[in-house]
């Protein structure tokens, strides 16, 4: 199957993405979802770094796919009565680790 390139914008930045012929509509739908998720986090005003916004948006979209509540745009996930306490704690630990890695990565630039 051959690929084509599509120019898209996510949070105001242009990207050229490879896409299988016939998959353009699905890719554009995914781009819209990512853009909306990232803009929502950015517009909340708590987080400025694009990479951090991208990680939180990716987590939110992944959680939606598995039926788990969204992660707040902060260092910890919101408490949810639907989420077992051990899962909530693991999620909080994961987000803390992501925060640490992103902070270190930003220092390398």
What does it look like?
- This protein is an alpha+beta fold and 109 residues long.
- It has one domain (3-108).
- It has helices at residues 24-43, 50-66, 85-108; strands spanning 3-10, 13-20.
- Mean pLDDT is 78; it is low at 74-80.
- The protein is globular, with a radius of gyration of 16 Å.
Number of strands: 2
Strand content: 5-15%
Unreliable spans are 74-80
| Helical coverage, percent range | 55-70%
How many domains in all? 1
Helix and strand run: EEHHH
Alpha-carbon Rg, integer: 16 Å
The chain-level structural class is: alpha+beta
Q: How many helices does DSSP assign?
A: 3
Head-to-tail CA distance between termini: 38 Å
Principal-axis shape: globular
Spatial ordering of strands, largest sheet: 1-2
Mean pLDDT: 78
- What summary fits the major beta sheet? 2 strands, antiparallel
């Amino acid at each position: 199957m051959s690929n084509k390139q599509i120019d898209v914008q996510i949070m105001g930045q242009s990207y050229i993405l490879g896409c299988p012929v016939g998959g353009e509509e699905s890719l554009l739908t995914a781009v819209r979802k990512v853009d909306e998720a990232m803009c929502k986090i950015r517009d909340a005003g708590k987080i400025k770094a694009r990479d951090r916004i991208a990680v939180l948006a990716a987590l939110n979209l992944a959680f939606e796919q598995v039926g788990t509540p969204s992660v707040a745009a902060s260092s910890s996930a919101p408490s949810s009565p639907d989420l077992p306490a051990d899962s909530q704690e693991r999620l909080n630990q994961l987000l803390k680790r992501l925060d640490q890695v992103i902070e270190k990565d930003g220092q390398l630039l």
